[in-house]
Design a protein that fits this description.
homodimer, Dna Topoisomerase Vi A Subunit, Chain: A, domain 2, two-stranded antiparallel ribbon, globular
Chain lengths: ~180, ~180
């Protein structure tokens, strides 16, 4: 399991062996239930227990905005900002020719279907600033620009950081992405 | 001295005491010379040994662009990107009412003089994304917008970072600062 090395694994295993049988049964059942009941939202591919996730079902969200993220963890990070009120679309990864991941392995055609059939006015690409993220952003922008306004989140200096300690690539991006102040 | 604690100070002092007298004399002279000869550029307030700094004297730089930074360290960080070809203006700090630093203590009126007398077409504010940086950016934007186009560097996700681990404020800024992808 990610982040768990041999020593932690041994500690956890020994801890579980010391528990009463009832607790272990309940734990095993909870794992099985989670595995069986949690699926993907038919709309946005976020994790959900039903057919559609809470965000897609929530009628108070702005339904004309779709924010595209690589996976559910990124979606949850954006939700923590409490700033974004639109819908999401989870790609299930990023285009990465090195790892043999092409666009056809991601949830891209359902995204095109959503955009052409729903009242979407803007697609916000919220992908990590990496080779894979940039490739995927460019691919999606080319694909979707015919149907809808495509934007991407800003890359630049993180809040609270020092200009002096920023790496060259980030500073160059921040300069390149400068915007007019009114 | 910044970044030097008592133990490092002791190690450095003992090292210096072990050097031959000639070397110490040369070191002391170098320090005195640096103190006496390094001053501020009359144009941009960057460090220089002459009246004007190398950047202001360089006729190959774009003279219509002025990038405003808090201090010379930030200027050097931007130079390391090798992306920026314009001129600079070093404020000598940021507006900080808490520390009693008002606009009159910074090199702001020489900046206004430069903009109104030179062929400047754009002022880029490259200040840290902090309360003081934002305050100073807003102050300068208000002051300079009458004369020239004012932009500021992008705040958002640093290159190579993971969206998942970005703090809420940075993510919110990145969302707010999103730009159209063509």
């Amino acid at each position: 399991m990610p982040g768990i090395g041999p020593r932690t694994a041994q500690r956890l295993a020994l801890h579980l062996l010391r528990q009463p049988e009832e607790r272990i049964k309940a734990f095993a059942n909870a794992l099985l239930n989670a595995r069986n009941q949690v699926g993907q939202c038919q709309q946005c591919f976020h994790l959900t227990e039903g057919n559609e996730c809470e965000i897609c079902l929530n009628q108070n969200r702005q339904r004309n905005l779709i924010c595209v993220v690589a996976d559910s963890r990124d979606l949850l990070a954006l939700e923590r900002t409490r700033e974004y009120k639109g819908l999401y679309h989870v790609l299930g990864g990023l285009i990465s020719p090195m790892d043999g991941i092409g666009p056809e392995l991601l949830n891209i055609s359902p995204l095109v279907k959503r955009i052409t059939s729903e009242e979407t006015t803007e697609v916000i690409l919220a992908l990590t600033p990496s080779v894979e993220g940039d490739t995927t952003s460019l691919y999606l922008a080319k694909l979707l620009n015919a149907f809808v306004k495509v934007t991407r989140i800003a890359y630049g200096l993180p809040v609270g950081s020092e200009l002096e300690y920023a790496d060259e690539v980030t500073l160059a991006r921040a300069l390149e992405g400068r915007r007019t102040v009114e």
